[in-house]
Structures are given as C-alpha cells and as structure tokens.
C-alpha cells in the first residue's frame, strides 16, 4: 500500500485542537463533545460548515476575528439550503464564538470551524434521506493554525475532477458532502507531488481551487470567475476585490478560460485558510517567471496588515477579543 507523503511545509502533528468547544448550546470540553453514530450528516454528508480565522494582534493580548458576521450570514444561508433550522441568529453565533475564544484564551492564530448538521429522525418520520423531519444541531470548535501556504508559492494541477454544477448540489453553500469533490481533487494533486488543484466547471471554464477562489493578473487588471461559474463566493475573494479597488486595480468578474490562466502574468488563490497565495506553476508550466508576482505580493501584504489590525478597519471587519492572561491547555488529536 502506498501513502502520499504530507508536504514538507505541513505543521508537524497537525493543528492543535483547543480545550473548549461550543456544542449544542453549551461550552464543553472538546474531548467530551460527541455525536451519535447514527448522526444523519455523518452518513449522508447533510451538514454545512464555515471556516473563519482569528489573528493575534500586535502586542499578543488580543485576537481579531475577520469578517465574523459575514461568515455567520453565509453559514445561515448554507443551513437554509439544507433545511437546518437553528435557534440562533448570526449575532448569537458570533457571541458564542467570541466567548469560546475568550475561554480558550490562546494568543495564537486560530481557525474557527462552525458545523451545522442533520442529527436524527424525529418520531413519525419515514426512513430515507429526506431533510424534513430530522433534528438539527450546531457546534463550533477551534484549532490553532498559523500560515500554511508554502513560502515560495503553490504548484497546482488542473484537476481531472470537475467542480459540480449548481444543479447537482448547491455549490454556493459549504455543504459537507460536497467536499468529497475537493478531497478527491486535492488527493489527486498531492499524489502527483503538487500542492493544490484548480477545477473547471461542467462548461469547461475555470471554477476554483479545492478550498480557495482563483484570480489571474494581466497588467494592472485582475480577473476572477463569476458566481455563475459554480464557485463558492469566497469572503476573501470579496475582500481582495475591495482591496484592489483601494489601490486602483480594476477587477473583472466573468468567465475565465483555463488557457487565460496559463498566459497570465500572475495567478493567485484566495481563501480564509490560505489567505492570498501565489500560484507559481500550473499544469506543469511556470506562471509568469515562476515566482510570486508584484501584484500578488502587494495584495497579500495589504491583506495581512488588514487582518492583523495594522490598517484602519474602516469597514468594521475585525471583531476584537481580549485574552485572559492564563490560557487553557490545548489538546492534540491523540489526546482526544
Ligand atoms: C470550495 C471553496 N471555495 C472557496 C473558498 C474560499 O472562501 P473564503 O474566502 O470565504 O474562505 C473556500 C473556503 O472556504 C472553499 O471551501
């Protein structure tokens, strides 16, 4: 049996899980939070999730959660598509998240993972994969996770897997089951010794990477696929469009052909996890001169400064969380 080696830049031992989670309305030890084996989402992928980041601010005594409200609004839209009906609104979920960060009290960059899911059939529900008549649940867990993109830029494949069309599953929602597509595409890329893959949609146009959106740069102009290209409308993608506007770069949102990426001056990916990460090689060819380009570097620097509270937060995108002096001890996957 062969296993694909983890890329050299992956953090050893994986991300550390924090002590506390928020599970079905209560704060509890992450080690004790459990879901039943019969959980419908576990069996059919009928859950939705978000990925949110909190960054340590200069001085190390405060975290800033980036675009918390926008993430929870998207989360609740994803819930709606799967008929996951939670007794919380975006403000309630944001408050629970801030309290969770405060309890874990970690002065480290943190990844926040809300999960809404179909739990179990209510009395009188006929067996089947239906969404109605199934109870709903929600949890939020957090991991310590720093920057993980390879420093010299990403080497990407154009995947042999296609991004599913919205008529197959609702791609504008972060539906757990839909991520089988991302997992297969990432696995294929890694088996070929690459970092990530860009997927085309059923029309053969560029859609996005496995967990990030795609931009190309030609001269002073950015271009990124439209929402109708079967993408997840990324919050980082939206942030980049705003940052580009701030520095006078035009951004076209339209169909993008794969050959347009191959001849672009620069290509970069955007996502909450990755941040803004240059693609230096695609389908075995260098992008530009094969090194991170100036526009990507500039946007990436501004993005980093913004999320770390070093630029004015004119748009109110940062939720500041003061930390207590004594952090809770953290768990590893082995201790869970
Ligand atoms: C499929 C997919 N596309 C794009 C993104 C980027 O979205 P965001 O910038 O909101 O993290 C993600 C990450 O959540 C994703 O999973």
Automatic annotation (TrEMBL):
CDD domains in the cross-refs: PLPDE_IV (cd00449)
UniProt KW Oxidoreductase keyword: no
EC identifiers of the protein: 2.6.1.42
UniProt pathway annotation: Amino-acid biosynthesis; L-isoleucine biosynthesis; L-isoleucine from 2-oxobutanoate: step 4/4; Amino-acid biosynthesis; L-valine biosynthesis; L-valine from pyruvate: step 4/4; Amino-acid biosynthesis; L-leucine biosynthesis; L-leucine from 3-methyl-2-oxobutanoate: step 4/4
Molecular-function GO terms, alphabetical: branched-chain-amino-acid transaminase activity
The reaction(s) this protein catalyses: L-isoleucine + 2-oxoglutarate = (S)-3-methyl-2-oxopentanoate + L-glutamate; L-leucine + 2-oxoglutarate = 4-methyl-2-oxopentanoate + L-glutamate; L-valine + 2-oxoglutarate = 3-methyl-2-oxobutanoate + L-glutamate
Assigned keywords, A-Z: Amino-acid biosynthesis, Aminotransferase, Branched-chain amino acid biosynthesis, Pyridoxal phosphate, Transferase
Cofactor(s) the protein requires to work: pyridoxal 5'-phosphate
Family membership: Belongs to the class-IV pyridoxal-phosphate-dependent aminotransferase family.
PANTHER family: AMINO-ACID AMINOTRANSFERASE, BRANCHED-CHAIN-AMINO-ACID AMINOTRANSFERASE-RELATED
Task performed by this protein: Acts on leucine, isoleucine and valine.
Identification of the protein by name: Branched-chain-amino-acid aminotransferase
Organism: Streptomyces heilongjiangensis
Gene responsible for this protein: ilvE
